[in-house]
Amino acid sequence: MDKIKCDCGHLNPYGTIICEACGKPIQEESPEKLLNMRYEGTARRSQTYNTNAVDKIWNFFSSVKVGVWLIVITLIASAIGTIFPQQMYIPPTANPAAYYEEEYGMLGEIYYILGFHNLYSSWWFVLLLGLIGVSITVASIDRGVPLFRSLRNQRVAKHDNFLKKQRMFAVSKRPEDEEQFMEEILFRLKEKRYRIRREGNSILAEKGRFSRWGPYVNHVGLIIFLLGSMLRIVPGLYLDEDMWIREGETKAIKGTDQEYYLKHDKFTFEVYDKKEERFSEALNRVQQPVPKNYQSDVTLYKADEKLPGAKPDLSEVKDYSIQVNKPLEFDGYSLYQVDYRQEMRYMHFELQNAETEEAVGSFSVDLLNPKDDFDLGDGNRVELEGYYPDFYFDKETKKPATKTNIPNNPAFIFKMFTPETPEGEVAFIGIRQNLDPSGDNQYKVAFDGIDTEFTTGLTVKKDYTLPIILIGGIIFMIGVVQGLYWNHRRVWVKVKEEDVWMAAHTNKNWHGIRRELDDITVKLNMKQLVDQQEESKKA
Amino acid sequence: MAQLSSSLLYIAFFIYFTATILFVVSLTVKEKDGTKSNKWGKWGYILSIIGFICQLGYFITRWIAAGHAPVSNLFEFTTFFGMMMVFGFIIIYAIYRLNVLGVFAMPVALLVIAYASMFPREIEPLIPALQSNWLKIHVTTAALGEGILAISFVAGLIYLVATIDQSKGSMKTGWLEFVLYTLLSTLGFILVSIGFGAANYQASFEWVNESGNQAELVYHMPAIASPHDGVKLTEGAFGPLFEAPAWMEGVDAPKKLNTFIWSLFSGLILYLLLRLSLRKRLGAALKPLMKNINTQLVDEISYRSIAIGFPVFTLGALIFAMIWAQAAWTRFWGWDPKEVWALITFLFYAAYLHLRLARDWHGEKSAWLCVLGFVIIMFNLIAVNIVIVGLHSYA
């Protein structure tokens, strides 16, 4: 399309409404109406072209109306996601298909069927966020680029029609001494911190132009934020692993490629003491122990270069106490305290005479590495025939079995030998169970205590996207403050043969600019600027 | 110290109450310059500041007594939110000197603080997740943002009362009555609580609480809604009329639901009494008070409080929140209900700003949005903690 040449000689892009340079209205709506100064009457792509598909898509996304609708739909969708808990917040062992119906009835079932239990990771929710991202980008380019061009190209001397059709306008009498008047008004404007440009008998006073960039800056911040959150899918930028370490154990830290090792020295779990005076009232009311501290004392090791398959040499990096809110940080990794388990570790038994319950010897079973055979002296011994760390009775095979290797519910089959019973007697021992399969055993194995051990649950995180996201957030905040707390104000003065014309524009806060200009006009004995929009409303 | 702290809160409450009365008087006093500050309004403002200082005293002494910033449970947070509302009012009044703002802002703040004191008030120890400097930074900034945003609600409400045509009933007058009724329900709640509290009313139920334990729940108001599958232990006590639904899983949820019903009920009675004695809609009764008000200025105030409050809220309730969540919960964002509702608040005010700045939504439309925004904030404060269980339900 052809460029539009204004009378002043400036070449404007096709679609321009107000000449970028001199401000002459090119496409006049009606001679009486005030100028629409939004985006300076520039040629916005979305307002200029609307023929092919690209134009239509561009125009759709550049619309503020569409943007607001996208925000409102996202808002409502987000709210729906909080009606019932998301799947990540229901018990991990629960089957979601059944859980929602059981807990929340028919509504819960519908919620599950519609996929709202994973709403925030659903394709359509992610698509909504994507559309908002596109809308922000398109709308900002559509407005920001022409606005920047126009404000850079603006000239000091404006066309008469431009001045006349500003919202704030007044014509005053021409002063007798023109030079003195110019000096005085320049002084007053400078006093109000305007930046001044003068060309002959025209003045352009401007301040706070940077606030016009606020919306574009905060949109850039948001885009960086959104892109940063998406970067997580790039391999190597994000790591999220859980690991369990028992007290005393040393393990390679997951995700570090065997480079770092962690030894768990000691775990501490503390609750608040009811005797602590200032909290006693609250602690007595809740009746339950309130946790005070979860802490894993650990030692971090780095593995030296090693041959494949060989045991690594570990050199100590540091000692640290990982607590909630105090992750261990090293080399881009963070180790968080997230969970703990108190597990059974050693079970103690006595071999007793079944009738008299007189002990003939005792032994302990290491629940993680049980021995097969325990020599109790004096010809007494016990053999471990079967061990089920997480016992259940399998109804199909009709045999004892184990669910996992973790000693949650240990059960044992022992064979007991004494000088009196050299053939051996079999006993089945579980928690609160002591079975004698034959029914006439002379000896029995009796439970005699337990030693527990803490296992700490740590999360290993590495997230190189965090700085990007943080920068996005900071840029957003700067943009918001820049756009909301300052205004872009301009004042034009033109000394004509008969009189002095003065016009003003601000992008917002008309109260403010009116107060400011009233102060100047009073001091210079000029006509007060009239808000022509308010006047026409009254009329 | 704890004793001194709660005395200071009572004193602050009383001073705020007096300030409210002075602001109301300032509107009825006839002076030429009706909207500008007159003597009564000036004293109302001074009292508001003195009350604020007393409440600040409460805050500091409680901090000393507890050893941590007193913003860790619903009582402490809601009280602080009320205090930030007063602070927001003090700032905005300093700029615009509009007495009518005090007539609405101070009672709303009073209601918020009185509402707060209905939650358990003992000093509680901090669980490990809360033991962080971000507790004070995140929570105070978020509350400050919400307090300033609440002033936009107050201005929006004033705008609606002043401008909505009361010559005949319409949907608009209906919604305005509903907003006023909601405020009366909060007042009703406080009156009912104080009333039954003075009578020392008690009725206990045995129930299975939110952690799945058998427990006893003591009601201090007659039970309209009992716990789900609860057994009444107090002989001869009133009710219940029905059981609370099982999906309400907040701490002591059935009791809170019961209180909520009492609030709606007592609010209705208050509303009907006022309506009958005034013989017109409450909006219509209030409107003459507003006849000298510069509605354009009120509209400007409602926008300005959002322009100030929105960035503060974003910083406190989203950015600081994310930084803390990264340290405490290993991720900066986890779609926890409280987080989501903070996002919803953010999105709502973002939409407001676009509509106002790019599509010229001024005046009435803008005022309705200000009211709606406050509803969202209050929903996040109250319903999310009571009805929806999440990581934030500490109280």
What does this structure look like?
The complex is a heterodimer of chains A (539) and B (395). Chain A has 4 domains: 44-151; 156-208 and 487-538, Kinase associated domain 1, KA1 (TATA-Binding Protein); 238-342 and 457-463, no CATH class; 345-450, no CATH class. The longest helix of chain A has 31 residues, at 123-153. In chain A, 31% of the residues lie in helices and 33% in strands. In chain A, a hairpin with a 7-residue loop joins strand 7 and strand 8 (260-271). The two termini of chain A are 41 Å apart. Chain A has helices at residues 45-48, 53-62, 64-80, 96-113, 123-153, 160-164, 178-191, 214-230, 277-286, 466-485, 510-523, 532-538; strands at residues 4-5, 11-12, 168-173, 195-199, 202-207, 238-246, 250-252, 260-271, 291-303, 314-323, 328-330, 333-353, 359-366, 373-377, 380-388, 391-394, 399-402, 411-417, 425-430, 433-435, 443-463, 489-495, 499-506, 530-531. In chain A, 28% of the residues are buried. With 395 residues, chain B is mainly alpha-helical. Chain B has 2 domains: 2-166 and 284-386, no CATH class; 180-279, no CATH class. Chain B contains 12 helices and 5 strands. Chain B has a 3-stranded antiparallel sheet with strand order 2-1-4, with no helix packed on it. In chain B, strands 3-5 form a two-stranded parallel sheet. The mean pLDDT of chain B is 87.
